[in-house]
Amino acid sequence: MDTGTAGTFDQIEIGQTDEFHHQVTESDLDAFCNLTGDDNPLHMDVEYASKTNFKERVVHGMLTASFISTMIGTKIPGKGSLLSEQHLRFLVPVRIGDMIRVWVKVKHKSQAEQIVFLKTVIYNQHNKKVVDGEAKVKVIS
Amino acid sequence: MDTGTAGTFDQIEIGQTDEFHHQVTESDLDAFCNLTGDDNPLHMDVEYASKTNFKERVVHGMLTASFISTMIGTKIPGKGSLLSEQHLRFLVPVRIGDMIRVWVKVKHKSQAEQIVFLKTVIYNQHNKKVVDGEAKVKVIS
Predict the structure, then answer these.
(1) What share of chain A is helix, strand, coil (3-state, %, to 5)?
(2) Is ipTM beyond 0.90?
(3) What pTM, to 2 d.p., does this model score?
(4) Which residues of B touch A75 (CB under 8 A)?
(5) Domains of chain B
(6) CA distance B28 to chain A (A)
(7) Residue A40 and residue B73: Cβ atoms within 8 Å?
(8) Which tens digits make up the pLDDT trace of A76-104?
């Protein structure tokens, strides 16, 4: 994963976009479950999930959404960013093995508050929007 | 962490609340950084953070918020829950060593859609609200 160096607040441009890809693995789910304790069988139990309409395990929504944090903390705005608000709409389940594309666009900036407003979207490998949302980010440095 | 067994949709009561406590450790931040690649120095670099107004590392907002997933997936509504929407407002920075309290209350239910609307709040050990938010959760089983 490319961890780009952020510019200062002034260098962030309205309309600027960036993205990165990540393939979600079974070990990502294991790590998220170990970290948070969220062992919901819809995410962690193959047999349980096989009996649902999904037929197989679904990735924890908050795990998928956590890659937006990666975008914000390493690319736009980049280092020194502090998440102030995040709205997430989970549209399509993500499966193990899916290649997600985390895409962010700068919508507005508030110079006075040093805040950036972002559109935050995650697509799957079929170019389907799996997570839609917006973020408000304070730029500390 | 207590991983309670969920009831069915019909057993979820409006007004019902639940909570759990978790002490955020340095290894939580390491695990989140390894999982997501979010190595924002505000979260991961002691020296960088010491030069900011925070004076010390701040916990990734999405790491703190991920414990709401734990509440949803293991307690209310519990297993078989699928996050449909989550709104998060990060009010106060969380520090390493903070004891967070994740608190959830059932606001509404939609029988037709098998959806539960939750108030989702996280407090710190000083009883300060660190994350405020709402979630919409589909109950699969």
Answers:
(1) 25, 35, 40
(2) yes
(3) 0.94
(4) none
(5) 9-139 (3.10.129.10)
(6) 6
(7) yes
(8) 999 999 999 999 999 999 999 999 999 99
